[in-house]
Each structure stands twice: as structure tokens, then as C-alpha cells.
Amino acid sequence: MDIKTISTIESVSPIENNTNTILRLGVAFLFIAIVYLLVSLSHSDILNNNFLIIAAVFGAYMAMNIGANDVANNVGPAVGSGALTMMSAIIIAAVFEAGGALIAGGDVVSTIKKGIIDPGMIENTEVFIWAMSAALLSAALWLNFATYFGAPVSTTHSIVGGVMGGGIAAAGFDIVAWGTMGKIAASWVISPVLGGLIAAMFLYIIKTQIVYKSNMVSSAKKTVPILVAIMTTAFTTYIVLKGTKKLMKVEFPVALVLGVVLGVLAYFIVKPLVAKASKKLKNNRESVNTLFTIPLIFGAALLSFAHGANDVANAIGPLAAINDAVVSGGQIGGKVGIPLWVMGVGAVGIAIGLALYGPKLIKTVGSEITQLDQMRAFSIALAAAITVIIASALGLPVSSTHIAVGGVFGVGFLREYLDNSEANLIKTTRQRFKDDKKELEILEKEFEQLDKKEDKSKKEYQRVIELMGKIEELQELVKDEKREFKKAKKIKYVKRDALKKIAAAWVVTVPAAATLSACVFYMTKGFML
User: Fold this and answer.
1) Which end of the chain has fewer CB atoms surrounding its CB within 10 Å, N or C?
2) Measured between alpha carbons, how far is 196 from 358 in angstroms, rounded to an integer?
3) Same domain, residue pair 62 and 127
4) Domain with 432 in it
5) What is residue 483's predicted lDDT score, i.e. its pLDDT?
């Protein structure tokens, strides 16, 4: 199912749209019902198992919302560029997200995501469970809201806001580690700016080393293997650092060395393949673009795997904490093991949410911010991996969502800058102004000569009328061009409305999720009392 197909579906009759909506809701509720039944039956002998059942339902709902919103960042550029169809992107992302969660997802997770509150300040186990349940539900509700309005937001920030709000409601403002929250707030700026700059840098390299060359095919034969080697280095380092925590713990220098080794190997493997493929290419941008398709698909798959391994804790971290509190009888805080069933809820939920509701955000990231092709999408995928590596080395908290979307904005603004250099704009406008003014002078001269003539033929009278119309039209055109020349209006490849909507959603994510969480906690507490 590609974007054209999605557009066709959206344009069909209301009855068909309602049927699709009901079907998706039915599948989502079926998954939640299955989780409910499995947890009820498997934990029937545990005291206070109702808490765990409710938390599992909230965790399943949260996982589906992560799939619907966050996964779009990994495959959206590939779909927008045409490298993947919507259906193939959903299949690849679902498989690799679930695989990353189940194979390489952390076997131990902090009870409180990012350590933003001190769980030791909540002495009552039931109060702690209510707070974590409120965090799960509020984060899921906020993600659902953002997905409905087509705004890609950070699921990490959503759950951070939920945990913060639930913690404050349970134990007051002193429970929050405000230093950690300050770093998270800084990531709102760091993540998109860093991602955008790196994506723009690689697109600029591609343009100057390939697109702007007279022989693009020959230049691509030299440059593409180098870019694939850099991509291999980046993704190997990224996967080892972020995607294999469960299998092994590797320090940054070791991961980087391993990445460089595989990058060099990839260069020598890819170089003859690119040379062979280049023989069939025409010397134009569209043809050279195809050389980036396969690396881009691999990039989307690897991003999905690492995301599943690293970010599945957003869905199941609080659920794992609640499970530990209920099963063990209540030691709160520290680190807890993640049972296989909890990891399964997260992995399957993400895949289902992506399949049911992912296309909307995939379309937003891939085509509704700026127009993408394979070169631009490749730059975004590469920037996502490199930005995470840089942030890990520097100890900076960053959001994969903000990085990917920042990369999309970065390539869009670079295109605007390159295509709107002041010299080219002034030169083009000035030449149009001169040409039209010259034509106006010629027409006015002809008009004056005919107007002075006393004995005019019918044909000459018709010509006078025709000239009056053309002169009036040209006068307006010259005025417009003069105004345009003065204002130096620029072409805009990035949709400003999308920029404003997404930026606003990012800023309010943590406070919105925190407020929702506090409200849910107080309502839950009121019901329980």
C-alpha cells in the first residue's frame, strides 16, 4: 500500500472510511483483550493481580501508540523518497522493531525511565503502582492525541512527562530530579538542530560531489561507495552501542573501531557493485538517485531494529516496575528484570500499532514536511545514526524522533538556501524585469505612432485597442517584478505550517503528559479510596 493508495482510501465514501476505522479499532481492542486474558490467567494466583492486569492493558495501549507515532521516523523518509512502498515499509519496520525488542531489548531496565524521580520517596507500594499506571496511560493518551493530529512527538518525552506528573502527584515536587529534567528540556533543541545540521551536511556533500558535476555517473561511482562505508560505520557503531545491550556491553571506542572495520570492508564490497550498476545509468539526477535505494532500505531496517531494542522500554519500563512490585511484594526502585511476556507485549504492540495507524505519521514525515528523494532520505537516515553516536559519546540526552524530523527539516532548508542564493534570485528577477520593460517600450512606441495617425484603417484601430490591452498588462507585470525584485522573495521547500505544528507539539509534550498523569493519578486514588 503506497501513498497513492492511502490517498485513494482517504477519498472513498464515508461508509468505507467508517468501515476501515471500525476494523482498525476492532483489531486494537482484540490485542488489548488478548493481553488482558493472558495476564489474568497466568497471574491468577498472585495477590493484587488486578493492578498488574490493568497495567498490562495500559502497557499494550502504550506500545500500540509508540508503533503508530514513533516508528514513522525510521521509515518515513524511505517511503517519501519512493525507495519503499507503504506496505513494504510497514512490514520491514514491524519485523525489525519486534526483532530488536525481543532479541536485543534490555533484560534490565531502570524502574523509573531516565531516573527522573526518586522512587524511594513513595513508601506505599499501591501508591507507586497507581503513579506508574497513570504514567503509562497518560503517555499513551498524549501519543494517541498527537498521532490523530499528525504530529510526530517523542515517546521518550511522553513517558518522562507521565512519570514526572505521577511522581509529583504521589509525593510532591521534591521527588523530581530537576537536573535530569533540565537535560531533557535541552534535548528539545539539541536533537533536531544536530540532526538537521548533519543531514544537511551530507546532502551538501552529495550535491557538490555528484549532482553538480558534469559527469554525475562517474562522480557517483567514486562517492557512493565512500558514503556507504560511512553509513556502515555509523550503523554498526549505533547498533553495537544501542541495540545489543542485552547480548553484550561494549564501550564506545570498541564499538567505533568495529564500525570502522566493517565500513572499510563494505567499501571494497560495494565499489565493484556500484561500478557495475553505473553502466546502465543515464547521466541525470533521477538515474543516479537509484544508487541510494538499497542503502536507504538497509538504513531504515537497521534504525527500526535499534529503535525496537532501545526504546521498547518506553512502553514496558513502568509495566516491568509494576510487575516486580506486585509479584515480589513490593520493593520499589532500583533495577528490575523484564519477563518475556512483558517484552512480548511491547514488541507485538508496537508492530500492531504501526500496521494499524502508522501510515498517517509515515506520510507526515515522508512527504508533508518537504519533498524527499533517495539522496535526501539517505542523508536523513545517516544523520540519525551519527547524531545518536555523537550524543552517546558526549553524554547528551537526545530524542530519535526529534533527530529524524530535524533531519527532514535540515535537508529542506538546505535546498531552500541553495536554490535561493541572493545572486541567482536577483539575476533572474532583473533579467525578467529588463526583458519585460524593453517589450513595453517597443509596444508603447508602436502605440504612439498609430495613435498619431489620423486616417486609420479598421485593422489599425483593432491594433491600437490590442496594444492598449497589452501595454496595460505589461505595466502591471513590470510593477509586480519591481516589487518582487525589492522584496527578494524566496522559494520555500519546507512547509511552515508543519514546522509550527510539530515544534509546538514538542514543547508541550512533557508538561501535557505530566498534567494528564497527575489527573489520572488523582482520579485513580479517588476511586480506590
Assistant:
1) C
2) 23
3) yes
4) 422-487
5) 65
pLDDT digit string (tens) for 276-294? 998 888 888 888 999 999 9
Q: Is 509 exposed, middle or buried (0-12, 13-18, 19+ CB in 10 A)?
A: buried
Amino acid residing at 68: A
Q: Which of 447, 386, 431 is nearest to 200 (CA)?
A: 386
Length of the chain: 529
Sign of CA dihedral 12, 16, 19, 23: negative
Alpha-carbon distance of 66 to 401, in angstroms, equals 11
Number of domains present in the structure of the chain: 2
Q: Residue 319 and residue 250: Cα distance in Å, rounded?
A: 27
270 with 355, same domain: the answer is yes
User: Is residue 422 predicted with pLDDT exceeding 60?
Assistant: no
Say if residue 274's pLDDT is above 90.
yes
- Would you state the cell numbers that stand for residue 286, as one nine-digit string? 533521477
Written as nine digits, the cell of 434 is: 529588463
User: What is the number of H-type helices and E-type strands within the chain?
Assistant: 19, 2
Is the overall model pTM greater than 0.85, yes or no? no
3-state secondary structure of 95: helix
Taking only the tens place, the pLDDT of each residue in 292-321 is 999 999 988 988 887 777 666 666 777 877
Q: What is the CB neighbour count within 10 angstroms for residue 57?
A: 20
Average pLDDT over residues 12-28: 72
Quick one: 397 and 469 in the same domain?
Answer: no
User: Tens digits of per-residue pLDDT, 200-246?
Assistant: 999 999 999 998 888 889 999 999 999 999 999 998 888 887 656 65
Max CA distance (Å), the chain: 112
Looking up cell 525511565 gives 113
Residue 15 in this model has a pLDDT that exceeds 60: no
Burial class (CB in 10 A: 0-12, 13-18, 19+), 373: middle
DSSP 37: H
CA angle 181, 187, 193 (to 5 degrees): 165
Q: Apex CA 329: angle with CA 324 and CA 333, to 5°?
A: 50
Q: What are the grid coordinates assigned to 89, written together?
A: 515499509
Q: Which residues contact 374 (CB under 8 A, 6 or more apart)?
A: 81, 82, 83, 289, 290, 291, 292, 293, 296
The set of cell numbers assigned to 251 is 564501550
